Amino acid sequence: MNGESIVTEIIGIIANPSYKKRDVILEYANQSLTALANILMLPDLKSGYDKVTTVLTDKQVGLPDTYNKGLYLAMVDGKPINIHADIKSMSITLCGVSDDEGDVKDVTVHGANLIYQAIPTTATDIDLYFYRNPLPMTDKRSSLPDGLTNNDDFDWAIIHLACRKIFDRIEDGREGPKTNTLKHEDYYNQRVLALDDYALTEGKAHSTRPSLSIPWPGAR
Description:
The chain is α+β, with helices and mostly antiparallel strands. The chain has five helices and eight strands; from the N terminus they run ααβββββαβββαα. The chain has two domains: 3-42 and 135-201, no CATH class; 45-132, no CATH class. It is elongated, with a radius of gyration of 21 Å.
C-alpha cells in the first residue's frame, strides 16, 4: 500500500465524522510506522549511516538524529572497532569506563549518546552504521511506508495500530469493554507476530520476540 491508500483505509474503518481529516489520520499512520520501527528490525532501515566526532573533554557524544537502534558497525579511519552491547558489558570487558586518553577502540550506545574508549587527544571521526528512523509517509500514491517494501503484514500493522489508537480515544469513557479498540489491538498483534515469522524465514530473526505492549510515540 501507499500513504494515500493507508489513510483511506483508516478513515473507512473508523467511519467517524470526527476523524475524516486526512492530515490528522496521516499523523496517526506515521506514529504507527515509528512504533513498528522501534520494536522490529526492519530491513530497509538498516541503511542508516552517519559520523560523530569525539569531544576532547568527554567520553561520550550525542547519537545522530537519524539513529533508531541496532548499531552494527563502527569504524575509525576505515577500520572496525569493538561494539559492546551496553555500558555494563563495556565496563566488565574493559575493567571500567574511564577518562583515560588513547585511541578509540571501543564504543557502546547509552541512551541518546555514544560512549567511547579511550578518549583521543585530537578530535576523531567515528563512522556509524545502524537502523535509522523511518521517513514519514505523505498522503500520496508515490509515498510508501519506510521499512519493509510490499509486505501486507507491515502495511496492515500500521493501519490496525492507528485504528487501535483512534478507537481508544473514541471509546474512552464508555461503559463496558472497548470493543473496537481491543479488536484492532488483536489484529495488530497478529500482524506483528507474522512479521516476526517473516524475519525468521528471511534469516533476519530478532534477538527476542517483539513486545506487543508498546509505547505510543508522541500521541496527540
